[in-house]
Amino acid sequence: SLKVALSDEAHWKLEPAGGATALALPPFGDLAVSLVYTASELDTPQPLTVSVSHPALGELLYAASGIGVEPVGAAPIAELASALGQPASGQIAFRNPFDRPLGLSIRLEQPQEGRFRLLRKSKHVKLEPNQLWQLPYAFQTDDIAEFSASIVLDGAWDGRPLSWTFPLKGVAVSRPLLRPITLRTKSRVPLSRELTLPLRGLELAEPERFSVRLDVAGDAAAAITSTLQVTPLTQLLAAPSLGVSLEWAPLRPARATGALVVTRASGGCWRYDVLLEAEDPEVEDVITIAAAINKPAAVSFTLENVVKADAPFSAFFTGDSPAKFAVSPAAGVLSGNVGTTFTVTYSPDSYGKPLRGSLVIDTEDVRWIYEVRGTLPVYNPPVARPPPSGDARLGPSGSHKR
Asked: With 50 as the cut, is the pLDDT of residue 399 above it?
């Protein structure tokens, strides 16, 4: 493996680029790396030598240089969501980049007073060299809206004034419902609902534009969001409520919690908790197989993917199905054009009542369920034939005479 050495590890780091996790040079290939520089001086070059060595490659030396400049622009916006009328807290993190102590004064700038506040009484702090420091703050509002503010840290370096700006965004979130909206249906059975969503706390001088989205997390998120459509019944937001139409056509079982989120153009949103549950689909068909004892019998059928695209599948019998049922193939690719042929086998080894099992065929998007019934062949006992009609007598010699 490659051996990498940096002449200055206090201000420089070398990291793999392009999502790689290790420094590895492929045969006849290139290796992309990233150099990360953290300045501790202003207007003073801080040089670096990178040594890359390998027994078969030898040693390669690379030179770099960095120079620190005054802070420019602002840090990324820190967004904080708060329940309507309830406080929420967050914090910013700042590291003293210099090799000597740094004194800072703290100020909060906000166009509309009272929404944000600092959770620190003192407006001054002294940080040791390279010290990481966190400043907590809080946001609270009774209005469904979005608010902005900035935390500014003022300091000095050799008499030169410096400032670091941390922009803040506070978003009010209202949860008007005490219980979640429940959406429940069977897989491949469409569900249609119209909902009236209360807009608590909304005050408008005139109607306003808005957006509606479904927020679902977890493993089932993709399957649910791709099959559920939310359509507002109006284009402008107006008190006291909003009507929306829901169309859900799940293709396989899923269970998830999420929220319908209504966001007004000027900021602020309403969240309506939702419980979504798609149960197993109805039985697709009943497959009956008659087989004699110790003589397996099989039935084949062809299934085509309803998504009209090839998809990996798994086929299996549920755990409560008798072991005398089997399916082939158990895995593969389900064709969306010509279909895939499945063979179900029944192998009875004793007499008894007819057996039933559940065959499941699963793709990432769809589930099918078949009921399989195993029976014995119908037994038809022989029927005695009556003697021929007419007068038939045996003679003395045992021969027939008429």
From this structure: no
